[in-house]
Amino acid sequence: MPRGDKLLAFSEAGLRRYGMLAGEQVEVISGGPFDRPTPTGEVRRLSELKLLAPVQPSKAVCVGLNYRDHAAEMKADLPGSPLLFLKPSTAVIGPDEEIVYPPSSQQVDYESELAVVIGKPCRAVSEADVPGYILGLTCANDVTARDLQRSDGQWTRAKSFDTFLPLGPYIATGLEGDDLAITGRLNGRVVQSSRTSRMIFGIPRLISFISQVMTLLPGDVILTGTPPGVGPMRPGDVIEVEIEGIGLLRNRLKA
Ligand code: MG
After folding, report:
1. pLDDT (tens digit, 9 = 90+) per residue, 163-181?
2. How far does residue 113's CA lie from ligand 1's centre (Å)?
């Protein structure tokens, strides 16, 4: 993979197409995000594109309680090994798409998270080999129906509603994920502010651990956990996840 690109997906004439960010412009590339990006010579203005989630994962593997101070605010014990759960592919939405507030919940929370995008099939890899399987990094929001998470005792329903996984706007390649500023903003107000260096389990440990359990496929995403400051959203709210070196993912809630 070439280093230092920002890959994106957009919709044009009903097709899913891919491009590379070049300032305010987008260079359209042939093939998908897993191929060597080859410019077609076509250029689009970023502001005129309808961006899509940059990948279509077969699954999103998520890590719970991976920041000490978030575990404290949830009054949860620190896990001895990564605590895993899944979000379905059908929960994925792209930048500026709406998160739909489900009628069965009274408390829908945001969780700003760094997401790792897998680039090659990955099974039982060592921590040392993990970097070779990563395509890049993107922003994610692990939207959670907190009341249902508590009442159900396990997390599948609370984490899996359609629209509960905003992803994007870009996949940043060649970026080290171990010390990036991560910020969550609700209606413009900073509600989460941390650094990925405060994770309990870092990216190599997480992906090696997960790959001992299940094969990760190109486009699968690993959500690395949320820093402290999670809280509820209401219909009409705008939630932003911004990560240093990647970009800003913005979504609005609707009833
Ligand atoms: Mg989370």
Report:
1. 999 999 999 999 999 999 9
2. 7
For 158, the enclosing helix (H) or strand (E) is helix 156-160
Same-domain status, 43 and 146: no
Residue 159 has pLDDT above 60, yes or no: yes
174 Cα–ligand 1 center, Å: 24
Bridge partners of residue 45, in order along the sequence:
25
Phi, psi of 47 (to 5 degrees): -65, -15
What residues have CB less than 8 Å from 239, skipping those under 6 apart? 99, 110, 141, 184, 185, 186, 233, 250, 251, 252, 253
- How many distinct structural domains can be found in the chain? 2
- Residues 91-117: tens digit of each pLDDT: 999 999 999 999 999 999 999 999 999
Ligand 1 midpoint to CA 59 (Å)? 15
β-strands 92-93, 165-172 pairing: parallel
Within-domain flag for 1: no
118: containing domain? 60-254
Ligand 1: distance of its center to the CA of 195 in Å?
A: 15
23 and 64 share a domain? no
Supply the pTM of this predicted model. Answer: 0.96
